[in-house]
Amino acid sequence: MTTSTAATGQLSTSAAEVYDAFFVPALFGAWAGPLCDAARVTAGSSVLDVACGTGATTREAARRAGDAGQVTGLDRNDGMIAVARGHGAGITWVEGRAESLPFSSGSFDVLLCQFGLMFFDDRAAALGEMRRVLRPGGRIALSVWDSASNSPGYAAMIALIEEMFGDQAADALRAPFVLGDPADLAAVLDAGGLGGAQVTTRTGTARFASIRDWVRTDVRGWTLADFIDDAGVEALVASAERQLGQFVGPDGGVVFPAPAHIATWEKGVPEA
Predict the structure, then answer these.
(1) What is the per-residue pLDDT across 34-85, written as a single tens digit (0 to 9) for each?
(2) Which residues, 6 or more positions from 158, have their beta carbon under 8 angstroms from its beta carbon?
(3) What is the Cα–Cα distance from 98 to 93, expressed in whole angstroms?
(4) How far is 92 from 64, CA to CA, in rounded Å?
(5) Coil, strand or helix: which one is 145?
(6) Domain of residue 64, residue span
(7) Assessment of whether the complete model's pTM goes beyond 0.85
(8) Tally of domains within the chain
(9) 54 lies in some domain
């Protein structure tokens, strides 16, 4: 696995299963509702969820859109799509790239993208494609993680991994936070034609059952597996239990802030 693989967030099917079982409840699931709120997904909406992963946000959009709506989840990762298909009845699942969406112009009322923008090969092209397939009057809502420095648990874990396993492994865990600086995010949005997008920063919380679950999720459910083998996982657990105890509560669970930015943009309706 290379740093470019880490930068694009590509997972095997087995990693996608760990991602779905652990990352979704620990981090991603709680953001599905706020993102759908920001996008104003309502009954009857036609929705595309770009970089849908295993479908946490897609399923929430489908619940809101109801039987009268049409919801599609797209991801470039076949492992993610395979897991998503296992528990997303009534949703159309498509393997494809954000930079070349396989849909006609003006096909959707709503475009969602939860924590995917950081990993696109060409972010401006992907945003341009989202604008293209959005109907006039439609709305894009996307989320990116705030800076790692504002998520103290991950700042500490990145530092520990860098100390134990080197820069490449640490960079793989830094990758989700690369658009955390609001200025960097604004520049990407502008380059993709989403100038004037409204960006808000919301509080979030990461929750893991234990230090061991946290380490397992980051290593086996993300892009660190080729940097950290089974022995490395055990060493990392032992070190984290010694050094990261400030994030552990009385019940042994791990809790720390994990804020994110949500950007929303509306496509204008042409004047008559």
Answers:
(1) 999 999 999 999 999 999 999 999 999 999 999 999 999 999 999 899 999 9
(2) 148, 170, 173, 174
(3) 14
(4) 15
(5) strand
(6) 3-148+178-206+258-266
(7) yes
(8) 1
(9) yes
